[in-house]
Specification:
The structure holds 2 protein chains of 2 kinds.
Chain A lengths: L2 H11 L4 E7 L8 H10 L5 E4 L10 H12 L4 H14 L5 E5 L1 H7 L1 H11 L3 E4 L8 H10 L2 E6 L5 H10 L4 E4 L12 H12 L6 E4 L5 H8 L4 E4 L1 H9 L7 H17 L2
Helix pairs in contact in A: 2-4, 2-12, 3-11, 4-6, 6-7, 10-12
Chain B lengths: L17 E2 L2 E2 L5 H17 L3 H15 L5 E3 L1 H7 L3 E6 L9 H14 L4 E6 L3 H13 L2 E7 H6 L1 H9 L3 E5 L6 H14 L4 E3 L10 H9 L1 H13 L6 E5 L4 H7 L9 E9 L10 H4 L1 E5 L2 E5 L24 H9 L2 E7 H15 L5 H13 L8 E6 L7 H7 L5
Parallel strand pairs in B: 4-14, 5-6, 5-8, 6-7, 9-10, 9-14, 10-13
Antiparallel strand pairs in B: 1-2, 3-4, 11-12
Helix pairs in contact in B: 2-4, 4-5, 4-9, 5-7, 9-11, 10-11, 14-15
Classes of the chains: A alpha/beta, B alpha/beta.
C-alpha cells in the first residue's frame, strides 16, 4: 500500500488529524533539509510536503517564492531533491513524502524518468501546481505504473463538475486550497471551508487536506475541526527565512511551531 | 473585403487551446474556472453583433484604423532588392499595435461585469495601452512591471500614472517581463471575482493565445487587402519581430493559408545567440511549460527559466506564443534572430532614410529586412510590421551612444 494511504488510515483510525508541514528543499541550504525533515516528524508531522524550487512559482506568494530563490542560489536541482528524500528514507521508512512544484523541471528531466526516479528515492506523491488533470493524462499513467500518487488541488472557484473530474484523477488525498489567493495569504473563513469540504466529500472518498492561510495552533485547530489534514507552509518558511544566517537553529525552531500545532490538533 | 483563403493553417487551436502539441492550459486550479468563464464569454461575444460593432467603431475612431501600408521606396532602393512596405502600427493611438488587443479585451471585461483591470508590461507599451482603455471605460487599473524595466522605460511609467493606473514594481526573480507576468497571475488568483487580466501577448493559458491573436489579426487582414490594392498582388514575404509574438501573429494569421507567402519571425539575439545572452527561445531554446502554456522556452539544464537579454524591453521574454512554436515545427514560418547592434542599425536606417522613428522592438524586424531584401528581386514585395514608434526608446539609444539628452 502507498505510504500516503497507510498514513491516513493509521492516523484517522486513531482519531488523529494529519499534520502536513511544507518546506522548500534546499532552503536556506541543502544540508539543512534532511535533518529538518526528521525533526518535523519528531515534532508530530505525519506527512511531509517538500517544495521543489522553481524560478517562476506563479501560484506562490512572496514568502515561498523567496524560499525558492534561496534554494536556487544554492543550485538546488530536482536531482538534489530526490537525493534528499533517498537519504531521509534511510532512517524513516514510514512517513510519506509528497513533492510539490511546477511542471517544467519535471518535463526537463523527462516525466517518466522523473516518476521512476522519485519512487526509487522514496517519494510517495507529487503535486504539480500547474498540471491540471486535463493536461495530465500521460503523467497520471506513469504515476499509476509506478505507484506514485498524483495529488491535485481544489479551490474555492472549483465547480462541481471539476470537483468530480479531479476526484477521479486524484490519489492519496485531495488538497483543498482554502482561499482565493497565493500561499501565505489571509486566514480562511472556517464555515466556508467546512461547507466546501462537504461538497467535495460527496464526490470523493479520499481524505481531504486543507492549506493556505494556516499560521498558528489556533487556525490549525479551527481547520482541523472539518478537514482530515492540515497543511502548514508559509509560517514555517518565514521562520526559516528569519533564521537563514543561523541555519543550525532551524530544525528546533520549526519543530517548536509544529509541536504547538500538534498539541492543538490532538486536543480537538 | 475579399474572401479570406482558409485551410488547415487556420484551424488551430483545438477546443482546449492546443496548437499541435503546444498551448493548452497549465494553470493553478484557482484559475481554471475563470479561464473557462473567459473562454465562454469570448465565444459568446465574438459572434455578438453589438460587441463587434462597438469594437469596429473604437478601432476606427479611437485607435485610428485602418493603419496605412506605406511603401518605403527610398529605403527599398538603397537596399537594392525587394520592395519594402511598412504596416504602420506605430501610428495607432498610444503608438503601437498593443491597443488593438487591449480595446478588445477591455470591452470583453466590461461586458463580463468586471470592474478592475490588471496587466503585465515589459517595455510599457502594453501597460500604456491597457491604462488608456481602462481610463476611457472608467475601470480601475493596476499594471505590474519589472523593477529593471521601470528604470529602462521611465517615460511609459509616467504615462501610465498620468492615465490613472497604479504601476506596481516587481522585484522578484529577474525583475523583468516574466516576473511581472508571475505577479499579475498572483493578483488574478487573489482577486478573480472582480478582476479581468488583460494579457498583452499571444502567450499564457488558453484562451489568451487565441483571443489576443484574433484581436491582433486586424493587422494582417488590413495588410492583405492593402497590398493587393497598392501593389496589385500578395506579398512574397512578411517580417515581424517576436517577443511573445502578438504583432507577428496578428500580421501572419490572415496570410497563413497563402502558402506562397513566406513568414519570418525575428527574435532578439541580444549580445549574440552564441553568447547565451539573448531572448530567442525559438532559435536557441527548447519545448517546455511556462506561464500556463507549452511552448519553446529558455531554460537551464535543470528546467529553471533563465534570464534573457535584449536591448529592447518588449522582446526580453524567455517564452513565446504557442502558435509560433507550432508554426516553427510545421515549417510554415521561419524564425531568425538579429542582435542588439543590428537592431540599432535598423533603428537609425529607418529614421534617416524614411523619417520614421521605429521602436527598438520593430527595429529587429527592420534589421532582418535589410538582410532579406537584397536577396530578392525588385518586383517582389515584403511587408514589415512596424509594430511601434520609437519615442519611448530615445533615452535608451542616447545612453548606448553616450549622448546626454
Amino acid at each position: 500500500m502507498n505510504r500516503i494511504t497507510a498514513c491516513f488510515d493509521r492516523c484517522l483510525g486513531l482519531g488523529r488529524k494529519v499534520l502536513i508541514p511544507f518546506v522548500t528543499a534546499g532552503d536556506p541550504n541543502r544540508e539543512v533539509t534532511v535533518p529538518l525533515m526528521h525533526e518535523m516528524v519528531n515534532a508530530g508531522a505525519d506527512l511531509i510536503e517538500l517544495g521543489v524550487p522553481f524560478s517562476d512559482p506563479m501560484a506562490d506568494g512572496p514568502t515561498i517564492q523567496r524560499s525558492s530563490e534561496r534554494a536556487l542560489e544554492k543550485n538546488t536541482s530536482i536531482h538534489h531533491v530526490l537525493e534528499m528524500v533517498a537519504i531521509f528514507r534511510q532512517q524513516d521508512a514510514i512517513t510519506p513524502v509528497v513533492l510539490m512544484g511546477y511542471l517544467n523541471p519535471i518535463e526537463n528531466m523527462g516525466a517518466e524518468h522523473f516518476v521512476a526516479a522519485a519512487v526509487k528515492a522514496g517519494v510517495d506523491g507529487v503535486l504539480t501546481v500547474d498540471l491540471p488533470p486535463e493536461e495530465g493524462e500521460e503523467f497520471e499513467q506513469f504515476c499509476e505504473q509506478h505507484d506514485l500518487a498524483p495529488i491535485y488541488l481544489l479551490a474555492p472557484t472549483s465547480t462541481e463538475a471539476r470537483i468530480g473530474k479531479i476526484a477521479r484523477s486524484a490519489r492519496g488525498f485531495i488538497y483543498y486550497v482554502s482561499v482565493k489567493g497565493v500561499t501565505g495569504s489571509q486566514v480562511p473563513d472556517v464555515a466556508e471551508v467546512a461547507a466546501k469540504i462537504e461538497t467535495i466529500r460527496q464526490q470523493s472518498k479520499l481524505p481531504i487536506g486543507v492549506g493556505f492561510g494556516i499560521r498558528d495552533a489556533a487556525s490549525a485547530a479551527a481547520i482541523g475541526g472539518c478537514a482530515d489534514a492540515v497543511v502548514v507552509g508559509s509560517v514555517l518558511v518565514s521562520r526559516m527565512e528569519a533564521l537563514q544566517q543561523t541555519p543550525e537553529q532551524i530544525p528546533a525552531a520549526i519543530g517548536g511551531i509544529l509541536a504547538e500545532m500538534r498539541k492543538a490538533l490532538d486536543e480537538l | 473585403m475579399e474572401q479570406d483563403v482558409s485551410n488547415q493553417w487556420n484551424e488551430q487551436p483545438d477546443e482546449r487551446g492546443h496548437f499541435g502539441v503546444y498551448g493548452g492550459i497549465f494553470a493553478p486550479e484557482t484559475l481554471m474556472a475563470p479561464l473557462q468563464a473567459l473562454t465562454e464569454g469570448y465565444n459568446h461575444y465574438r459572434k455578438d453583433a453589438g460587441f463587434i460593432r462597438e469594437l469596429d467603431e473604437d478601432l476606427q475612431h479611437y485607435v485610428g484604423r485602418p493603419s496605412p501600408l506605406y511603401h518605403a521606396e527610398r529605403w527599398s532602393e538603397r537596399l537594392g532588392g525587394a520592395q519594402i512596405w511598412l504596416k504602420r502600427e506605430d501610428l495607432n493611438h498610444t503608438g503601437a499595435h498593443k491597443v488593438n488587443n487591449t480595446i478588445g479585451q477591455a470591452l470583453l471585461a466590461k461586458r463580463m461585469g468586471k470592474t478592475r483591470i490588471i496587466a503585465e508590461t515589459g517595455a510599457g507599451q502594453h501597460g500604456v495601452a491597457t491604462a488608456t482603455v481602462a481610463a476611457r471605460l472608467g475601470l480601475e487599473c493596476v499594471v505590474y512591471m519589472g523593477a529593471v524595466d521601470i528604470v529602462r522605460q521611465k517615460l511609459n511609467v509616467y504615462r501610465m500614472k498620468l492615465l490613472g493606473a497604479k504601476v506596481v514594481p516587481v522585484t522578484s526573480g529577474s525583475k523583468t517581463l516574466k516576473d511581472a507576468l508571475n505577479e499579475a497571475m498572483r493578483d488574478w488568483v487573489t482577486n478573480v471575482d472582480n478582476t479581468f487580466y488583460i494579457i498583452g501577448t499571444v502567450a499564457g493559458p488558453h484562451p489568451y493565445p487565441l483571443l489576443v491573436r484574433d484581436f491582433q489579426a486586424i493587422i494582417g487582414r488590413e495588410a492583405r487587402e492593402q497590398i493587393q490594392q497598392q501593389a496589385g498582388q500578395l506579398p512574397d514575404a512578411l517580417i515581424a519581430c517576436v517577443g511573445g509574438g502578438s504583432n507577428a501573429m496578428g500580421l501572419f494569421y490572415p496570410f497563413l493559408a497563402d502558402e506562397q507567402v513566406s513568414l519570418y519571425g525575428v527574435e532578439a539575439a541580444g549580445h549574440g545567440l552564441e553568447s547565451g545572452k539573448h531572448a530567442a527561445p525559438l532559435n536557441a531554446g527548447k519545448p517546455g511549460v511556462l506561464h500556463g502554456n507549452r511552448t519553446y522556452i529558455m531554460e537551464d539544464e535543470n528546467g529553471q527559466i533563465i534570464e534573457t537579454h535584449s536591448i529592447s524591453a518588449g522582446l526580453d521574454y524567455p517564452g513565446v506564443g504557442p502558435e509560433h512554436a507550432w508554426l516553427k515545427d510545421e515549417g510554415r514560418a521561419q524564425y531568425v534572430a538579429v542582435d542588439d547592434q543590428e537592431a540599432l542599425q535598423g533603428f537609425h536606417d529607418l529614421t534617416r532614410i524614411e523619417g520614421i522613428l521605429p521602436a527598438l522592438e520593430s527595429s529587429h524586424a527592420l534589421a532582418y529586412a535589410t538582410q532579406l531584401a537584397p536577396t530578392m528581386k525588385s518586383d517582389q514585395h515584403i511587408i514589415v510590421n512596424l509594430s511601434g514608434r520609437g519615442d519611448k526608446d530615445i533615452h535608451t539609444v542616447a545612453e548606448i551612444e553616450g549622448v546626454e539628452v
